[in-house]
Amino acid sequence: GEISFCAYNTGIGWRKILENMYKNASVAEWYKTHGKHAIYAKGKEVELETTQHSLYVNAQDAARVRAKEHDIPITAAEEERLRRKTAWEAQQARKLYEELVLKVPKAELVQIGSTSKTAKEEKVPV
């Protein structure tokens, strides 16, 4: 069938059209024809024909464990956390520098009153 220009240009629409165009079977139909695969999760027993393997583990490499407390981020989330922490520390250092060295006065907190009367103002003495 024809694919409209709008659907072609929008990534999500284009993807949905292609997914629906080449969809052969639903999940239920797939399970009926091919069966479900075994689930390996949460400490369940895994049926193995044999436990023999050819994996060689170097004892020095296995003993070398990376300490959890380190300065080098491993994941992108740790990189982002480190970047934010560094930026916050730099901001705090800048505030201290401005306050102590440059003698810039701290910005005072300005309270903005509400436009409606508060409960105290509405009470009329009797």
Q: How are the SSEs placed, and which strands pair?
A:
Layout: H1 5-9, H2 11-21, H3 27-34, H4 59-63, H5 76-100, H6 119-122
Keywords:
6 helices, mainly alpha, 126 residues, 46% helix
How would you describe this structure to a colleague?
The protein is mainly alpha-helical and 126 residues long. Among the domains are: 1-47, no CATH class; 73-105. Helix content is 46%, strand content 0%. It has helices at 5-9, 11-21, 27-34, 59-63, 76-100, 119-122. It starts with a helix and ends with a helix. The model has no long low-confidence stretch (mean pLDDT 78).
Give the tally of β-strands. 0
Low-confidence stretches: none
Structural class: mainly alpha
**What average pLDDT do the residues reach?**
78
| String of helices and strands | HHHHHH
Largest β sheet strand count, sense and barrel closure? none
Question: What shape does the CA trace take?
Answer: extended
Strand content: under 5%
**Rg to the nearest angstrom?**
32 Å
Number of helices: 6
How far apart the termini lie comes to: 82 Å
What quaternary form is this?
single chain
Helix content: 40-55%
In short:
The chain has 126 residues and is mostly helical. The protein has six helices and no strands.
